[in-house]
Structure prediction request, 575 residues.
Amino acid sequence: MPSYRNVALAMFLTLHGALGFGLRTSPTSSLIASSASLRRTMSKAITTTAIYSTAEATESEKKTPIKNEEAYNKVKMEDIVSLCKRRGIIFPSSEIYNGFAGFFDYGPLGSELKKNVKDNFWRHFVQRREDVVGIDSSIIHNPTTWQSSGHLDGFSDPMVDCKETKLRYRADQLFCAPVTVEECGTTVGFVCVLEANDEDMVKAAKKQAKKLLKESDRKGQAIQPFAFKDLTQVSEEEMGQIPSPGSGKPTLTMPRDFNLMFQTNVGAMQDGSSVAYLRPETAQGIFINYKNVLGTSRQKLPFGIAQIGKAFRNEITPRNFIFRSREFEQMEIEYFIPPGDDVWQPFHEKWIADSKAFLETVGLREDLMGYDVHEGDGLAHYARACTDITFKFPFGEQELMGIAARGNFDLTSHTEGSGKTLDYFDEETKEKFIPHVIEPSLGVDRLILALICSAYAEDEVNGEKRNYLSFHPSIAPVKVSVLPLVKNKEPLVKAARELFEKLQMRWNVQWDQTGAIGRRYRRADEIGVPFCVTVDFETIEDDGAVTIRDRDTTEQVRIPIDEVVPYLSKMIDGY
Prediction:
């Protein structure tokens, strides 16, 4: 006679969705259970329904998800910030002390995501190339470094002050426009808004214009379209009419330069001789090590030096989350090439293409990327060319990665400043020259923000809305979630645990044994886990296989447990 405990458990398993996987009616008179023992018990107790493995029926995911293609277009920056905090990706720094503007901390998922991004960059541009080597230079250099590079004199942003509120703003991030009545052409004043996407800027400007029209007894009159320009382009007369965002009155000063470098002191003395600076970029650490690398790495032109590291800039108004912060991380390459007007352009174009390809391999949406080619006054004084790869963030299209042809400005400056020759001897032509440089430069934090935006997704599975992060498997913070079907059957849990510990040897994986399978799938989806592996009764008593479920398609495959690692390796690492 069957055990009442087994019968009760078997009946519980047949409840639709009780453990998160769906059931379907069988025309046969015997119950097919997932466990051999349950199969024997249930054949005597119930004759109308059948339970299949998790590969066959799970949370009604047999239908293809219907993706909401407009989901990202409706997302606000506040949604991204909230998502990052809620899911342990990024927190405000020093939050228990009310935060510290311009600084952020990476949480459990964020620190894994950051590591994966940097590892992918290093593999792509250093380990898989024979012409690029890496270094890791110090954050604080000899202060003369910054004198030679021009940072002490020219590394600044234009700043304006509000004389009433004492608030400071970057002049190139405040945009003004005259409010001109369409019918008569009369200008009734100016509006002033912070840089944002076009829609938000126009919305804020209309609100201010409405107030101006009311004050000038022109309420309801039509106005001409706003012709925005930033405050670096305004005259002193115009500045006298432009309202400050802080006071709402024309209380802004004219723009002036503000040096962005963080100053510190080295040693016991606190005088001029001890002044040093936290590096504002990683590039100069590469240039001052050029001769050391050339002499020890056996590289010949063309070759590159890569570095990933922290940089610090005392931003006037840090904003847009981690897009513009005061402490950030850079991934840069200085690629040294022979001089000549006919030499640099093919290298520059090749690095633009390689950079775009890398961004796509880590999961950036191609439709959100673009190009911005710098010309004329938009070029640095030493640059021959510069092209930015841009990304459409919720606050507008902005620079993501820059690829610049810098000429030989940096090595020449450090040659003059140090008195040491930083030239290159070409053994074939028997010529000495100072190499020119192509510089691909990418911010780790900006890329992470772009990846989160690219991964933001919504779809509908069998009528149920699903929000998830579709991270590329190579950069996903958690690669696999291992799910034992039940947590109170020791052989099943043991098999799942053995698989989990095996996968831990390769990747960052997650163990989840609480709740219905469907609910656990959703938890994994929300943090961007690309694969869930379910160990069920058939794993231990029948086929020795597990169910692997894909996050994006929700499709499931049944894989022998010995083939799980090779299968996931191919899906995650590409080999």
User: Anything to note?
Assistant: DSSP finds 17 helices and 29 strands in the chain. The longest helix spans residues 108-127.
